[in-house]
Amino acid sequence: MKVEVDVPKCVASGQCVLISPEVFDQRDDDGMVILLDASPPENEHTGVRESAMVCPAAAIRVTES
């Protein structure tokens, strides 16, 4: 799995961080997404997929590999 984020699209809702805190974080100053792991381990895949689905800005892209 490969994960990409489109930071300019992010609306800082933080749903990704709540669901998958090992893969996503937020910047302190504006709450925008920070990608911590672009190739997360398999045990994080379900949370990453859910994060992408619930992102209100569709700022998370997941590619299965």
Short précis:
This protein has 65 residues and is α+β, with helices and mostly antiparallel strands.
Q: How would you describe this structure to a colleague?
A:
The chain has 65 residues and is α+β, with helices and mostly antiparallel strands. The chain has a single domain, classed as 2-Layer Sandwich (Alpha-Beta Plaits), CATH 3.30.70. The chain is built from two helices and four strands. It has helices spanning 15-19, 45-54; strands spanning 2-5, 24-26, 33-35, 60-63. The strands form two sheets. Strands 1-4 form a two-stranded antiparallel sheet. It has a two-stranded antiparallel sheet with strand order 2-3. A hairpin with a 6-residue loop joins strand 2 (24-26) and strand 3. The longest helix has 10 residues, at 45-54. The radius of gyration is 10 Å and the shape is globular. The mean pLDDT is 97.
Name the descriptors.
65 residues, two-stranded antiparallel ribbon, single chain, globular, 4 strands, alpha+beta, 2 helices, Alpha-Beta Plaits
